[in-house]
Amino acid sequence: MINELTNEELLRYSRHLPLPEVGIKGQKKLKNASVLIVGTGGLGSPVALYLAAAGVGKIGIVDYDKVEPSNLQRQIIHGSSTLGVSKVVSARNRMLELNPAIEVVAYDEPFTSDNALRIATDFKILVDGTDNFPTRYLINDVCVFLGIPNVYGSIFQFDGQVSTFFAKEGPCYRCLFPEPPPPGLIPSCEEGGVLGILPGTIGTIQATETIKLILGIGSNLVGRLLLYNAIDMSFDFVKLKKNPLCKICGSNPTVDKLIDYDEFCGFPHDSEHNFSGERKNFVTCEELFKKIKEHEKIQLIDIRESFELEISSIQGALHIPYGQLLMRKNELDQDKEIILFCKSGIRSEKALNKLIEVGVRNVKHLDGGINSWARTIDRNLPIY
Fold first, then answer.
1. 197-233 pLDDT, tens per residue?
2. Which of 40, 284, 359, 373 keeps 20 to 30 A from 13, CA to CA?
3. Does this model's pTM top 0.85?
4. Nearest to 352 by CA among 283, 258, 274
5. What pLDDT shows up at residue 275?
6. What are the extents of the domains in the chain?
7. Are 381 and 312 within 8 A, CB to CB?
8. Is 342 a catalytic residue?
9. Which of 176, 168, 105, 173 is nearest to 138 (CA)?
């Protein structure tokens, strides 16, 4: 335990000290606290910045991606100068620039069943800044096994959710969601979009919840789910109860160790973040380019939304939005090879499987979508 604050720290945290709920005693609690943040993206960015600024003494960050241009619309811990840099390195440098008095432990690796307990053991609170179901269930189970709180957040388009799952005092994530949704049912932020400032709102609430847990003040979100809508500027709460039949924190738990969470959520093992179905019935950009050049009998179908056509397009493609595909399947020429494409290949593969289910023959999809086409074939097209 650290007993004293330095003169520099007393000055740095001088706006905390007059608060009766914080004061010197509370600031020492923050200095002695340890928090693990899984994900340094949209949610992890504000969480990491505000916990660092508040003086949380030891902060762990886990991620294995690199900073990309599309991140910068919302992942405010990173910048143009760190494009191509490991996210945890970028985040650690920014956090220490903000507050060099703290310790930041960076884990540049995926958070998996193999390493999760090893990484999380040294921390007393875990903050979920992830964007996929396998890792959310993994985080929950790790927190239940270690007996620590899980400060959960999620975002999509204009909506966000926050709660604190803490099996010692209330429900866990599995109590609310016993089973994951079918793979591909809920689109990712890449597919559906997200308002850039939304993760700032949700992540800041997660940071607030974390600091309150450390200080032991106020009413926390254990047993409550906060729902936020940015369009309506509305906050609602849903009461949550512990599920006595929960498989991990109920009366007779059946989950007693970390499992294969990709398999549990129905994800293929070659996909860390997004469901992409079975790897079959696809063509590469090079194969499609060759088919077009050699005038093969193909029908190219663009299943993106209308606004996406204003960004990029492939000449000669017929536009049938994903949501209209089954209603307009009579427009598909099954005497030709039908090739579907979207932005990145996720929607087109789901569309392909739907068409196969209703008996459409000779259909494939473009692997990697039009963004891959822009990277490999037509470099004049923008990537979005």
1. 999 999 999 999 999 999 999 999 999 999 999 999 9
2. 40
3. no
4. 283
5. 33
6. 33-264, 282-376
7. yes
8. yes
9. 173
Q: Is 202 within 8 Å of 129 (Cβ atoms)?
A: no
User: What's CA 254's distance to the chain center, in Å?
Assistant: 27
Distance separating alpha carbons of residues 111 and 382, to the nearest angstrom: 32
The SS3 of residue 45 is helix
Q: Which fold has domain 282-376?
A: Oxidized Rhodanese; domain 1 (3.40.250)
pLDDT over 90 (residue 168): yes
Catalytic residue, chosen from 172, 175, 189, 249, is 189
What DSSP letter does each residue of 67-126 carry, written as one string? --GGGGGT-TT--GGGTTSBHHHHHHHHHHHH-TTSEEEEEES---TTTHHHHHTT-SEE
CA 362 from chain centre, in angstroms, equals: 35
Helix boundaries (H) for the chain: 7-12, 23-32, 44-54, 87-98, 116-120, 133-146, 173-176, 189-192, 198-215, 261-264, 285-293, 306-309, 346-357, 369-376
User: How, if at all, do strands 150-156 and 159-165 pair?
Assistant: antiparallel
- Contacts (Cβ under 8 Å, ≥6 apart) of 52: 59, 95, 96, 98, 99, 102, 104
In tens, the pLDDT along 21-79 reads 999 999 999 999 999 999 999 999 999 999 999 999 999 999 999 999 999 999 999 99
- Per-residue pLDDT, 268: 53
Question: CA 353, CA 199: separation in Å to the nearest integer?
Answer: 32
Instruction: Provide the edge-to-edge strand list for the sheet that holds 103-108.
Output: 103-108, 58-63, 34-38, 125-128, 150-156, 159-165, 224-229, 234-239
For this structure, is 249 an active site residue? no
CA pair distance 343, 200, nearest whole angstrom = 26
Q: Among candidates 232, 208, 99, 96, which has minimal Cα distance to 160?
A: 232
Q: Which of 172, 175, 249, 342 is catalytic?
A: 342
Topology of domain 33-264, per CATH? Rossmann fold (3.40.50)
Measured distance CA(94)–CA(101) in Å, rounded: 13
Token reading at 3: 């007993």
Beta strand 58-63 pairing with 150-156: unpaired
Question: What gap in Å lies between CA 43 and CA 191, rounded to an integer?
Answer: 18
Question: Do 255 and 179 touch, CB atoms closer than 8 A?
Answer: no
**Cα gap 83→378, rounded to integer Å:** 23
